[in-house]
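Following up on my earlier thread - several people asked me to post the actual chain instead of describing it. Fair enough. Here it is, all 556 residues.
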Amino acid sequence: MKKFWKIILTVAAILAAIVLGTAWYLNNHWKGIMDKQLRRYVSEGSDSLYTLAYGDISLNLLTGSVSIKNVALLPDSAVYNRLVAESRAPQMIYNAKMSYVRVSGLKIWKYFIGKEVDASGFTMEDPEITVVQDLRSRDTTPQKSFYAAMNQLIHNFRIGRIDLANTRLSYVQIREDSSRKITKLDNLDVRLRDLQIDSMTEKDLSRVLYAQNFDVSLEKWDYRTPDSLYWLHVNNISYNAIEKALSVENVQLEPRYKKADFDKKIVTQNDRFELAFNHIKAEGVTLQNLLRQTIFIRTASIDGGELHAYRNRALPYPPGDKYGGFPNQLLDKLQLPLTIDTLKAQGVHISYTELHPQTGEAGRIEFHQAGGTFTNITNQDSLIERNHHCIADLHAVLMRTGKLRARFDFELGSKTGVFGVSGQLRGMDGREMNPATRPLGEVAIRSANIREMDFNLKGNERSCSGTLRLLYSDLKIDFLKDMENAKGKKRKKGLVSFIANLMALHNENPPPDGPVRIAKPRFTRDPKKSFFNLVWKTIFTGIKETVLTDAAAGLM
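Reply from S.P.:
Thanks for posting it. Predicted structure:
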């Protein structure tokens, strides 16, 4: 019995030695073949544009694992310049390096016998990738699909998963005028699942870049604006190419300077913004459009956030005018092709603060729980031909109790910024406006019951006009400074307040024995001021026409 087991163990040892010896021989033999073929594939597949460089290759025939150290994909500038001269240069050039490339579960016999790549995993460690897009390049040669080009070297290609973790990506765009735009992303994670390249998947529309699933995530991206006035922070970005879904946890626009220092930097009047939008989601975002630098979004949403604007009116106006700066005009000027079918927002706190040039005091107006729906945001001519109206239906609580709704209608493609706006304000205590009227108008609202205000306005970049109906009661105000009348006669603020409440103001609308007063305001725009200033000034003109008596001009 012992002799039998001795024979068995001896045979097993000999077989193990043969297997290990064969494996050692094949490992070294096939490693040499793989070494030569990898370089040849890259060179021939790119028309000698790229060179593949790397250190040691480790091949384990038994486990089907391959490990390649210090991998670099390098473009040849001399070859690229030759392709440019021949009008065959691609617009995209890639430069990549990584500490390791690891392949697991590779069926090595399929690769060496049938020229097929079949592996369970492919991992790139610490990749650094630079992508250069040269918009000046033109490739006039007939374009082959990736599968058609690859099929000459590899017949079938399947990898269960591909992982690029902690990727450092630099994207450089060279424009037609040779100017450059550089974007850098750190700690980018890319995951592809069930990547399969063959004659069937080439036509499979459910796949993206031949993969059954394609995910990109980025924990944080920080960007300093070109004017160096702001930081843009974007946190927890996630994109699923198959579902065409993009989500962002938070976007912040943060001023780099406090208000006083910001004013010193800008020198002239301009708005200082603080912005934070939360839980942003977008659907219908295709990878193909992103690669073409075209933004098309079917639906988008913002759930919560803040938008605060501040302006110092003591600073001088900037030179020139603001013609051409209305929302529809800016959208038309945008170089990036943009379409958002529907954008919904809710739970946004908005405020505008203005510093009075004489008093040095700040007036503030606030909108709570603001939200609404924007439709047909686009600068694409073909879409504008079908529908040239961008609509914004908005709602908010003005100050503390005013229930405000507004509908903006922007005419897309209009060179003069044609627009319409209508709205309603319901159930507001007028005293809530004192944080704005006291510092900016030096007028305090002692009492005012605003039941309803309806307005309907139309305008362009030059002027705005329409109708306004304001229903209110118990209007009383106090002037906070002494005033002079049209003849230069000084009047004490207490006396002015008494006369105004007695003779200059309609204390209610409608009066007990009269019809409702309906104003027809018209306002010519100050070309140095904004779109929203024109809308507000037109509404304010209508309010003054409603509340002031005919005797007001002489008394005030």
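The CA atoms of residues 170 and 226 lie 17 Å apart. That should answer part of your original question.
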